[in-house]
Amino acid sequence: xxxxxxxxxxxxxxxxxxxxxxxxxxxxxxxxxxxxxxxxxxxxxxxxxxxxxxxxxxxxxxxxxxxxxxxxxxxxxxxxxxxxxxxxxxxxxxxxxxxxxxxxxxxxxxxxxxxxxxxxxxxxxxxxxxxxxxxxxxxxxxxxxxxxxxxxxxxxxxx
Length: 159
Ligand SMILES: CC(C)(COP(=O)(O)OP(=O)(O)OC[C@H]1O[C@@H](n2cnc3c(N)ncnc32)[C@H](O)[C@@H]1OP(=O)(O)O)[C@@H](O)C(=O)NCCC(=O)NCCS
Known about the structure:
Blueprint: H1 4-14, H2 22-31, E1 37-41, E2 44-52, E3 60-68, H3 77-86, E4 96-101, H4 106-119, E5 122-129, E6 143-149
The protein binds coenzyme A.
């Protein structure tokens, strides 16, 4: 992952995701490229996932942000990026994929519930951050932790 500016623009254009600084996206590319991914169609950036291995959970990859450009949605781009991450050498040992989802984000919930179904495993859903945890609580939803697993990435090799 090399292009922090294009990722920043894609995140901004979703109109839904928290827009972090361009510097944050550059750092993700610098330090978390083993677990993060972009998708391109004809050289255009259409998708992005930032993810990392939480230091306190050695069997888990945490998916931070997922964004697919409007024109690319509903075509399996996000699902394909999730598969790409769990197939990375850095994720060979993981058994769980964690993420948080805003309770009104139907597309995001469908993505992660669908991914659990495709892996043939469970998803537990429990509130992680309450609305009052956010200083911008008037516009920010709570965040529900989706924990998908257990699964073995070796059972899902690329075609
Ligand atoms: C959420 C998002 C990443 C999904 O990307 P995508 O490439 O369209 O997703 P996929 O095509 O891989 O679809 C995965 C599943 O979700 C379902 N889905 C996708 N968009 C949906 C929607 N708007 N409403 C309901 N279901 C939806 C698909 O039908 C598919 O279901 P299946 O597993 O039963 O086949 C995309 O809509 C997006 O970028 N939204 C704005 C940013 C955002 O909300 N990010 C997630 C926050 S964590």
